[in-house]
């Protein structure tokens, strides 16, 4: 909805032009029977109209007083009487509802008084028919002015309410977009952390092992390099998948999200004792991805913080819920924390999304334990 309205400067010019146009004909009042008294009454009625928009109630009061003076001092109609319906309109338009109704009541009462005064002024007999005719005519003008002012005020209030509602909806939409963008950034950060941290930590561990093993058995180094290459390719595929999801509608060449069937690729090594569900086990994709990420991040933390010669147990089971348990016999709470890790926070947020529970902390007897329960 579009609504045209004058600005403050335009309003001032319009009010000044209106009042001036109404005032100029009244300057000829001394040339008629009303004389200078009529001119004075006309000025009292018309001059306040310059301020009708900003002080409508006061302007109406002055115009009404001028009309009373006219009824007492002048027994014929004056041009300046047009100020009264203009003042009634201004009160109904720019003042309160109560003020508008008051002006209407004063106008209807004044219509009867003016009708009687005019009938006498024109030398007629005060009878019902002429008084009623004048009263109805003047009352119609007053009621019309009041109705137009009330309608304009109601419409302006309606338009202002629509504008305020539109602005509020726009602000709320912007807030929702900002929240959604924040959530999406957090999700991408978790995915990036899980993929990059796991892949790089595996590569670093394997590279360190190859450096020492190569001195004794070069064949071992070749095997480790193959593992490093495979891990790097795996991480690269994951990175391409996530970056592809950021492109609108670009799903070409993207593989599905990892799930329970992909856990076997994480728990490779003689130092890991794993008990996993059957690859054909079916659970919701979101739950499967969360379980995969919990195991992935837990193993990453083991490689980074648990120390050398660590034994790890991974237990993932599916019943009425998916349970994930990863525990090691490493340094546990004694491991050094660089303060920059997001792994535990990311795992806790992932599990909370599915209404599950997450626990992480030192393991009785030494080491670290991560446990998660994901409802189906």
From TrEMBL:
<keyword id="KW-1133">Transmembrane helix</keyword>
<keyword id="KW-0408">Iron</keyword>
<dbReference type="Pfam" id="PF23539">
    <property type="entry name" value="DUF7134"/>
</dbReference>
<keyword id="KW-0004">4Fe-4S</keyword>
<keyword id="KW-0597">Phosphoprotein</keyword>
<dbReference type="InterPro" id="IPR003594">
    <property type="entry name" value="HATPase_dom"/>
</dbReference>
<feature type="transmembrane region" description="Helical">
    <location>
        <begin position="91"/>
        <end position="119"/>
    </location>
</feature>
<keyword id="KW-0547">Nucleotide-binding</keyword>
<protein>
    <recommendedName>
        <fullName>Oxygen sensor histidine kinase NreB</fullName>
        <ecNumber>2.7.13.3</ecNumber>
    </recommendedName>
</protein>
<keyword id="KW-0902">Two-component regulatory system</keyword>
<keyword id="KW-0479">Metal-binding</keyword>
<dbReference type="InterPro" id="IPR050482">
    <property type="entry name" value="Sensor_HK_TwoCompSys"/>
</dbReference>
<dbReference type="InterPro" id="IPR004358">
    <property type="entry name" value="Sig_transdc_His_kin-like_C"/>
</dbReference>
<comment type="function">
    <text>Member of the two-component regulatory system NreB/NreC involved in the control of dissimilatory nitrate/nitrite reduction in response to oxygen. NreB functions as a direct oxygen sensor histidine kinase which is autophosphorylated, in the absence of oxygen, probably at the conserved histidine residue, and transfers its phosphate group probably to a conserved aspartate residue of NreC. NreB/NreC activates the expression of the nitrate (narGHJI) and nitrite (nir) reductase operons, as well as the putative nitrate transporter gene narT.</text>
</comment>
<feature type="transmembrane region" description="Helical">
    <location>
        <begin position="131"/>
        <end position="152"/>
    </location>
</feature>
<dbReference type="Pfam" id="PF02518">
    <property type="entry name" value="HATPase_c"/>
</dbReference>
<keyword id="KW-0963">Cytoplasm</keyword>
<dbReference type="InterPro" id="IPR055558">
    <property type="entry name" value="DUF7134"/>
</dbReference>
<dbReference type="InterPro" id="IPR011712">
    <property type="entry name" value="Sig_transdc_His_kin_sub3_dim/P"/>
</dbReference>
<feature type="domain" description="Histidine kinase">
    <location>
        <begin position="293"/>
        <end position="376"/>
    </location>
</feature>
<dbReference type="InterPro" id="IPR036890">
    <property type="entry name" value="HATPase_C_sf"/>
</dbReference>
<dbReference type="Pfam" id="PF07730">
    <property type="entry name" value="HisKA_3"/>
</dbReference>
<keyword id="KW-0411">Iron-sulfur</keyword>
<feature type="transmembrane region" description="Helical">
    <location>
        <begin position="58"/>
        <end position="79"/>
    </location>
</feature>
<keyword id="KW-0067">ATP-binding</keyword>
<keyword id="KW-0418">Kinase</keyword>
<dbReference type="GO" id="GO:0016301">
    <property type="term" value="F:kinase activity"/>
</dbReference>
<dbReference type="InterPro" id="IPR005467">
    <property type="entry name" value="His_kinase_dom"/>
</dbReference>
<keyword id="KW-0808">Transferase</keyword>
<keyword id="KW-0812">Transmembrane</keyword>
<keyword id="KW-0472">Membrane</keyword>
